[in-house]
Amino acid sequence: MATSRVPAAIEALLAIWRATPGLAGVQILDGPPTIDQAGADYLSVGWSSGSELAVEFTQEFNAAGARTRDEEFSILCFLDTWTGDTDVATRRTRAFELLAVCEETIRASNSNPTAPTLNGAVLWAEIASGSLMQANTDQGVRAAIPFVVACRARL
After folding, report:
1. CA 135 vs CA 7, 29, 40, 60: distances in Å
2. Which residues, 6 or more positions from 110, have their beta carbon under 8 angstroms from its beta carbon?
3. Contact, 148 vs 125, CB < 8 A?
């Protein structure tokens, strides 16, 4: 019996996003970057800039008898686009285009009605919150979106 669905959900997100044609050319990272990512689009699963926190979770018994538990958790993700140019609007637009692709892959659709389950890893998942970060650096403009994938699972 699994004590948490967090590892399975992270692995599922990595697999789904690595296989998504709309994210071709984007580096999909498990956790924090290990090298300088300047000049590249990347997406980190289980990491957000300025924090070592990867996931927050809570669990409680599902019903009397304590046979099953419900787990709710939030996976921190970080999407960054940085090419060395000076056009803020282009970077911001690119960041939201990539976020839209991420969101579409885990939203139910006619062709993929079970997408929110992350291939069966959870009961449901969704992009629940995020924010926009913009910076003008000596290496060009950068736009980033830290966001949260919220999940619910049954253990």
Report:
1. 32, 22, 15, 41
2. none
3. no
Q: What pLDDT, on a 0 to 100 scale, did the predictor assign at position 63? A: 66
Which neighbouring-strand residues pair with 29? 44
Question: Which tens digit of pLDDT belongs to each residue from 18-53?
Answer: 999 999 999 999 998 887 666 679 999 999 988 888
**Rg of the Cα atoms in the chain:** 17
- CB 60: neighbour CB atoms within 10 A? 8
d(CA 104, CA 115): 9
Q: Quick check: 116 pLDDT over 80?
A: yes
DSSP assignments along 65-110, one per residue: TS--EEEEEEEEEEEEEE-S---HHHHHHHHHHHHHHHHHHTS--S
Distances 126 to 2, 50, 142, 152 between C-alpha atoms, Å: 22, 23, 25, 10
CA 142 to chain centre: 19
- Mean pLDDT confidence for 135-146: 90
Burial class (CB in 10 A: 0-12, 13-18, 19+), 95: buried
